[in-house]
Amino acid sequence: MKKSNLPFKPEDLDELYSGSDEKTISPYLSSSEIYKRFGKPGANKGGVVYDAQGGPDSDLWNKGSENFRERRRAAMRKKGDERWVEPARESEERRSSARRDRRRRGREEEQAPELRERSKRNKNVGSEPGDRGDSVGLRVIGGLFRGSKLEYSGDRRVRPMKERVREAIFNLLGESPKGKHAVDLFAGTGALAFEAVSRGAVSATLFEVHFPTARVTRRNIALLDEKVPGVAKRFNLVTTDVYFWGRKLAATDQNEPVARSPLESSSQATLPSETPWLVFCSPPYDFWIDREEETLELLRVLRERAPKGSVFVIESDDRFDFELLEADIPPKKRRSYPPAEVAIFTV
What is this structure's pTM? Predict the structure, then answer.
């Protein structure tokens, strides 16, 4: 930026403020305007250095009067001088971006422990969530309904069992589903119960406490009924908390029928006492930690009430100790399909 000396000193201009001379100036005049009124700089080297370009940071008479620079910038902003407006806009955008980055980093630092824990939990999710209403690739693998697509809402809490794990379980079960009554304690989409009936189970009871998920399960039953008319009668969807249902079951006499009002019909279930059961216990993995005692008590009650020859299929992750089941689990029926851990035993 070119700078030069003026042929006069600042004190020589003081008298201009009190007069009416047309040469009266203000601190808002640029150096080039001063040159126009008072002539070009001479050879006087003792004067004050001025900015001849008159930019936003121009200094008049040795940096001018108090708060001059701020007042000059305000005046240039007001009249839209591009020498100030564009740099100011870019500077403000940079400051805003920096503030947003600081806030984002602050939130990330605050949430870091929670995000790490959530990531640890999510690695055990059996199927990634999709858009609401998408089937996300779920289907019945074998048997009567083989290839039938199942709807999945995409709710991460549902955690449908991976198809490879479901297929491995039914390979281990072999002919066991035939002639049994399937009981899916945490139904979700209903895939386990549907697979069991598809492979020979005579009927199924499905428990689901989450009403939106229960509606999805009901639609899946309707889809299967379209493929095999009349099959919907073989499914009993119970919308209740299975832990609450288990406590009521433990408190009732299994030899005496329980009278229920019509209002209880959709939230209660009676399992057959003569037909062996095929019980699936595949809750959210965290239940094996957060609700371990309740889950073990539910399984204990069912084992006591189950007809002879009933089969239990248990799925958890590696945080659960299967010895707590106090069941005789054959080594060949204890498998690992990371992150899933599976055990099958007969009572």
Answer: 0.60
